[in-house]
């Protein structure tokens, strides 16, 4: 795992280091040196939420996301800031759109000059101020390097950021450490390494997924992208701290996102458990039928919220605020009136969102 992380770093340090985000080394020239960058299944893309295929995939199984690593480093590689971890339990992800188990390699960020843009993928032509990429390689390919030779070699869990009024305590030490890696090739070690779970969003049920590429050279088309709908919240000052980092020419790394690429013949899936939406409130449903619908909506085999926070290997539960049905399930039998209120609330929330 450590070897894999080091290799990913060497992609940035090594043969692919002479790319940038402006001018002659900018994204529009990447294809001249790296054939894949001119491919037909590139990332990022704009996701049109009205043009996705709704699916209800098996739950994502995240293992080791709640285990504090023994050692975590933050490194400025001249293109972004990269987090590598040495952990007793190497985090893995499986399930969802994935076949097989994927092992953690590294995570890094993409941002823009100001809070109006910076994410790579866009949703309905909207850019978020920043995006987190948590990179995994398929375990059977042994390393991130050899995984690049397989179309299902990598998966990236992508999280968008939004600006909140208050600092996120989960990112406190992270942001403070950015001061120690202002210059390219500087590294710093966390005193109290955060868990992966600390750095990502809660709701892991609602996501877009599609097949694409690395968003930096060599742009290999080997990535199953999983873009979570729920953003991570940071304050303006916390996002601003990333813009103080410098590239290898000691110029501020104020933006490091690739422009969106054509979708081409690809389909974007949207995972949701909104079977509950099928309830037709015009009809007077017998309580038994309502219970049946809520039952169908339950994720089979997932531990309850209280079990999952205590165990080392967990299937992360959807957050209660996003998932009325699961909340109801975890509290057991409730008066039918409350069940119907929840159905109404979920339906009403959706109505305002569309
Ligand atoms: C962290 O950095 C130290 C010093 O460069 C290095 O020895 C160690 O292997 C690194 N660990 C990880 C997990 O990247
Ligand atoms: C953000 O940057 C863009 C591009 O440089 C610029 O057009 C825009 O006015 C800026 N917005 C704010 C709010 O500073
Ligand atoms: C970060 O920099 C500060 C100030 O230069 C220094 O005191 C501290 O030891 C550094 N921490 C790490 C983890 O490198
Ligand atoms: C992604 O590619 C795999 C084959 O590697 C295929 O099975 C899967 O259906 C594709 N996913 C989408 C969303 O098109
Ligand atoms: Zn990235």
UniProtKB/TrEMBL annotation:
Enzyme category, top tier: lyase
Gene Ontology terms, MF aspect: carbonate dehydratase activity; zinc ion binding
Domain Alpha-carbonic anhydrase: 17-272
Region annotation Disordered: where it falls in the sequence: 296-326
EC numbers: 4.2.1.1
Record-linked PROSITE patterns: ALPHA_CA_2
GO CC annotation terms, alphabetical: cytoplasm
InterPro entries, per the entry: CA_dom (IPR001148), CA_dom_sf (IPR036398), Carbonic_anhydrase_a-class (IPR023561)
Endpoints of the signal sequence: 1-16
Amino acid composition bias (Low complexity), ranges on this chain: 304-313
Gene3D superfamilies xrefs: Alpha carbonic anhydrase
Pfam families: Carb_anhydrase
Keywords for the protein's UniProt record, in alphabetical order: Glycoprotein, Membrane, Metal-binding, Signal, Transmembrane, Transmembrane helix, Zinc
Bilayer-crossing regions: 328-349
PANTHER family: CARBONIC ANHYDRASE (PTHR18952), CARBONIC ANHYDRASE 7 (PTHR18952:SF124)
Family: Belongs to the alpha-carbonic anhydrase family.
Protein name: carbonic anhydrase
Species: Anopheles darlingi
Lineage of producing organism: Eukaryota, Metazoa, Ecdysozoa, Arthropoda, Hexapoda
């Amino acid at each position: 795992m450590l070897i894999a992380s080091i290799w990913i770093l060497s992609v940035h340090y090594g043969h692919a280091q002479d790319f940038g985000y402006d001018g002659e080394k900018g994204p529009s020239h990447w294809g001249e040196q790296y054939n894949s960058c001119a491919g037909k299944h590139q990332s990022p893309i704009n996701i049109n939420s009205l043009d996705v295929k709704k699916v209800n995939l098996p739950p994502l199984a995240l293992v080791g996301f709640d285990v504090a690593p023994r050692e975590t480093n933050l490194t400025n590689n001249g293109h972004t800031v990269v987090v590598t971890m040495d952990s007793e339990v190497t985090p893995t992800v499986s399930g969802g759109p994935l076949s097989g188990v994927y092992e953690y390699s590294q995570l890094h960020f993409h941002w823009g000059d100001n809070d109006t843009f910076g994410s790579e993928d866009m949703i309905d032509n909207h850019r978020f101020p920043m995006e987190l990429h948590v990179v995994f390689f398929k375990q059977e390919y042994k390393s991130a390097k050899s995984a690049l030779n397989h179309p299902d070699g990598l998966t990236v869990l992508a999280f968008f950021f939004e600006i909140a009024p208050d600092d996120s305590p989960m990112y406190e030490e992270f942001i403070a450490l950015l001061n120690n890696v202002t210059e390219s090739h500087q590294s710093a070690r966390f005193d109290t390494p955060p868990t992966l779970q600390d750095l990502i969003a809660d709701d892991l049920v609602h996501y877009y997924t599609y097949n694409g590429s690395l968003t930096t050279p060599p742009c290999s088309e080997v990535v199953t992208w999983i873009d979570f709908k729920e953003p991570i919240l940071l304050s303006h000052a916390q996002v601003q701290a990333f813009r103080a980092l410098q590239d290898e020419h000691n110029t501020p790394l104020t933006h490091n996102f690739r422009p969106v690429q054509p979708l081409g013949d690809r389909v974007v899936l949207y995972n949701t458990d909104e079977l509950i939406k099928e309830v037709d409130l015009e009809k007077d449903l017998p309580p038994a039928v309502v219970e049946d619908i809520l039952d169908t909506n339950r994720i089979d085999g997932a531990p309850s919220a209280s079990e999952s926070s205590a165990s080392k290997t967990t299937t992360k539960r959807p957050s209660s605020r996003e998932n009325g049905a699961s909340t109801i399930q975890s509290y057991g039998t409730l008066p039918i009136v409350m069940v119907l209120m929840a159905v109404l609330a979920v339906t009403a929330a959706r109505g305002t969102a569309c």
